[in-house]
Amino acid sequence: MSARLPYFTSLGMFIIDEINFPDYKMDGILGGGGTFAILGSRIILGSRDSDLCSWFVDIGNDCPREILKELRILNTGGIFRFDDTRKCTRGWNGYNQNQFREFKYLTEKKRVTMADLKQYPVMLQSKSFHFVCSPRRCISLIEELHEISEDLGIVVSSPVIAWEPIPDCCSPRNLQETLDILGNIDIFTPNAAEAAMFYGEDEPVDKPNCERIASSFLKYMTKPDSGIVLRCGPLGCVVVTKNNPKPMWFPAYHKGEAKIIDPTGCGNTFVGAFATEFVKSRKNFKLAAVKATIAAGLCLEQHGLPKLTVGDNGEDLWNGEAFDTMLKKYYIENPNLA
Fold first, then answer.
1. pLDDT digits (tens, 9 = 90+) for 122-138
2. May I ask which residue range the UniProt record assigns to the signal sequence (predicted)?
3. How many folded domains does the chain comprise?
């Protein structure tokens, strides 16, 4: 991996997905929270800095060559760990008519821990970290990051922490524990359904209720330049920050359902793109939200990851289109955000 400090490090996993929709299913699809978060980061970094997003890719004895090839094409700073004694982590995703997602593991998962970073000290100095976990594990990871860094004599200079709570922990019984650790978080980013579940409520489907739920967490976020980024599906996302408590809305990239194929991994992609641009732009919530919205839109256009090719001038093309072109289109459609 690169000797340069990563912009983004995910402790999410690489998973091979089976995806079940009401009228059909797909199997052998590249997925996982870590994979999609890295995709988002990779979209923002471009080919020149593609190695500045780091993660662990645990490859079992049943990994299809096509998936391995697709992972390598991204040319990230991933650490590939091959283990012939186990299968890849595999997951089952089920969607109902309302796109509500259920998930379960089909094989034993290979969890990434902070201790894994000991062999790669440059990862411990990442400018941002992505955690997809319970509140208890989140605070444990933050504490381990500082303890391991101190043991190795590495100075950790307040990295950005982006936390996605897992759906299983989003319930009233875990609300207080969640609120108690928000002072350690820079970007708290559940989706609207998950955030509402903390209060025993149904998913909000209108902007006022999304704003109400997002704002309810703000007083507990005490780090400078911290905020809540609530992902609200077709409504887009709403951002509420310590410096600007007035809700800021960012419309979804795709209007309607014409190009929406599969929402799996969309949220993780958003978070990876957001955290990376947040660091690159010196904590510009507005620019990070715009670019993350576009990256998430790309993720929706197919099963698995969007196709990466190279244009005539050497620029990345995602599903045949340059990111800068998508950015210009978004600003044209939303001139108030330009």
1. 999 999 999 999 999 99
2. none
3. 1
Q: Is residue 286 part of a domain?
A: yes
With 0-12 CB in 10 A as exposed, 13-18 as middle and 19+ as buried, what is 284? middle
Q: Summarize pLDDT for 40-94 with one digit per residue, the tens.
A: 999 999 999 999 999 999 999 999 999 999 999 999 999 999 999 999 999 998 9
CATH of the domain at 280: 3.40.1190.20
Question: Edge-to-edge strands of the sheet including 227-231?
Answer: 77-82, 53-59, 8-10, 128-133, 160-165, 187-188, 227-231, 237-241, 248-250
Residue 1 has pLDDT above 70, yes or no: no
* Domain assignment of residue 3, yes or no: no
Q: Which domain holds residue 173?
A: 8-337
The answer to whether position 2 is within a domain reads no
Q: Is residue 260 part of a domain?
A: yes
Q: How far is CA 327 from the centre of its chain?
A: 19
Residue written as tokens 């957001």? 274
pTM beyond cutoff 0.85 = yes
